[in-house]
Amino acid sequence: MSVSHRLSRTDADRLHVALMLALTFSTGVVDAVGYLGLDRVFTGNMTGNVVLLGMALTGTTTLPILRPLLALGFFLVGAVASSRIVKRDDGWSGRVTVTLWLIAGLLTAIAAVLAFALHLDPEVFGTIATSALGFAMGMQAALARRVKVADVTTVVVTSTLAGLAADSRLAGGTGALWVRRALAVALISAGAAAGALALLVHVSLGVLVSAAITVVVASLGHTGHRARAATRAA
C-alpha cells in the first residue's frame, strides 16, 4: 500500500473534525427548513423545541404543540436506533458509514415527500416530514457522540459557546480548541442562512442539500477509515 493511501492518526482526527463540522452546517439548514418552512419546529436543536413546547403548553401563545412534540419524541427514537447500529465503537467505523447512508436516504425520502406530496395535505405530510427529520437528526446526534469530536455535537452549539468563552484567554484559559468551536457556531448559523435562502426556491431544497452533504460526509469518512486501517496494518 503506497503512502498516499495511508492516513495518520492526526490526519484522521482532522478529517473527523471537518466532517462533523459539515454535519453541523447541515443541521442549520434542516432547522431553518423546519422552523421557517414547517410551522416553527426545530428538528435538530431540541433545546429550542423544549423551550417552545413549554411556552406553547401554557395556552397563552399560538405556538404549535403537536409537531414539536413529535419531533422531540422521534429525535429520541432516532438516537436510540443509531446507537444500536453504531454500538459502542469510538471514532469512525463501518457502522458509522452505514448509519450516515441511512440518514442520507431518509433525508432524500423526506425531500421527495416535501416536493411531491406536501401539497396533497399540508397538515398530514408536514407532520410526517418534521417527525422524520427529528428522527434523522437524532440518529446524527448519537452518531456524532460515537465519533467523539470534542465540542462538535453537530446539533447544538450552546455548550460550544460556553466552552469558547470559559476556556478563552480572556477568562484565564488557554484558548484551546477555539478554532473548531468558532467554526461550529459560524457553520450552524451559515447553514441556517442557507436553509432560509433555499426556502425561496422550495421547502424541499434545503433537505435535499442536507442529504447531499451527508452523502459526501459518509463517502469521505469511509475513505479515511479505510486509509487509516491500511496505516495500522502497514
Task: Describe this entry's structure for a reader.
With 234 residues, the chain is mostly helical. It has one domain: Growth Hormone, Chain: A, CATH 1.20.1250. 73% of the residues lie in helices and 0% in strands. α2 packs antiparallel against α3 and α4 packs antiparallel against α5 (122-147). The chain is globular and about 60 Å long. The termini are close together.
Instruction: Give helix and strand order, one letter per element, not per position.
Output: HHHHHHHH
Distance between the termini: 8 Å
- Percent helix, as a range, is over 70%
Proportion of residues in extended strands: under 5%
Q: Class, according to the CATH hierarchy?
A: Mainly Alpha
Q: And the CATH topology?
A: Growth Hormone, Chain: A
Helix/strand/pairing category? mainly alpha
Low-confidence stretches: none
Strand segment count: 0
State the shape: globular
Q: Any idea what the radius of gyration is?
A: 18 Å
Number of helices: 8
Query: What's the number of structural domains?
Result: 1
Q: What's the mean pLDDT score?
A: 91
- Give me the CATH architecture, please: Up-down Bundle
- Biggest β-sheet strands, sense, barrel: none
Summed up, what is this model?
The chain has helices spanning 9-37, 46-56, 66-86, 94-116, 122-147, 158-166, 178-198, 203-233.
Write the layout of secondary structure elements.
Elements: H1 9-37, H2 46-56, H3 66-86, H4 94-116, H5 122-147, H6 158-166, H7 178-198, H8 203-233
Helix pairs in contact: 1-5, 1-7, 1-8, 2-3, 3-5, 4-5, 4-8, 6-7, 7-8
